[in-house]
Design brief:
Blueprint lengths: L2 H16 L1 H10 L7 E15 L3 H4 L3 H21 L3 E6 L2 E6 L7 H25 L6 E17 L4 E6 L1 H12 L7 E5 H5 L7 E7 L8 E6 L2
Parallel strand pairs: 4-6
Antiparallel strand pairs: 1-3, 1-4, 2-3, 4-5, 6-8, 7-8
Helix pairs in contact: 1-2, 4-5
Length: 224
């Protein structure tokens, strides 16, 4: 392989593994972009999980389940990027993303709009799955807006550009609470709801006590 093709391969691989936002940082800042650092930032965090019948329940092979989840992964990352979000990571069949590093105050609304589109996209995928006698997917989505640390975290030989902080834990907790037998469910925190600047219909879902916060936090369900 010549050096030109090798450089393209390395750039493509970096974009796929670390994300285009990391690739752009490295191309812009060089070795400085590889240093460990973090800054305070107010972001909107989104966690997505799936409800999918297992192969033991329906008799589908692991290969078929992987194929179905592959379509979901493609849809998830494509939709996040199309809404100017930063896709953070996959953990099993769960995914996480965040908005707000560009400084725009609209990031809570944009993240919620993305979640609504994810639920609608899943409905479209499910229609095709039903025609082919395949299991359907339901999404559990949790969204929270709050202060986090944003930057490169890790060791001297392995780092990741990501976020840390209590606001992330609440988004993950909301994802865990977002269960419905009928359809995909999107739950947002009171902090996200107060910052919405677009017309997104919500209804009160519950209140929870969060470690480190004296008052209970309101949870709202997005209607779509």
């Amino acid at each position: 392989m010549d050096s030109q093709n090798e450089n393209k391969l390395l750039r493509d691989a970096l974009g796929m593994y670390a994300g285009e936002h990391v690739l752009e940082m490295i191309l812009k800042d060089g070795e400085k972009a590889l240093e460990r650092f973090s800054n305070d930032a107010e972001l909107t965090l989104v966690f997505v999980d799936v409800l999918l019948y297992t192969e033991n329940d329906l008799g589908f092979s692991s290969g078929k389940i992987s194929e179905i989840l592959g379509e979901y992964y493609e849809m998830l990352t494509r939709t996040v990027v199309s809404h100017d979000g930063i896709f953070d990571s996959f953990v099993g069949d769960s995914g996480s993303a965040f908005w707000g590093i560009d400084g725009k105050k609209s990031h809570p609304s944009t993240a919620c709009s993305c979640a609504i589109d994810l639920a609608r996209e899943i409905d479209a995928l499910n229609k095709n799955s039903t025609k082919n006698n395949l299991p359907s997917i339901k999404l559990k989505i949790g969204i929270n807006t709050g202060s986090v640390r944003l930057g490169n975290f890790g060791s001297s030989d392995r780092i990741k550009y990501t976020v840390m902080g209590g606001a992330i834990n609440l988004a993950s907790r909301l994802c865990g609470l977002a269960f419905s037998d009928q359809s995909s469910t999107i739950l947002i925190s009171e902090m996200t709801r107060k910052r919405l600047i677009s017309e997104i219909e919500t209804e009160h879902f519950d209140t929870v006590h969060v470690k480190g916060i004296s008052e209970q936090i309101g949870i709202y369900k997005i209607a779509f």
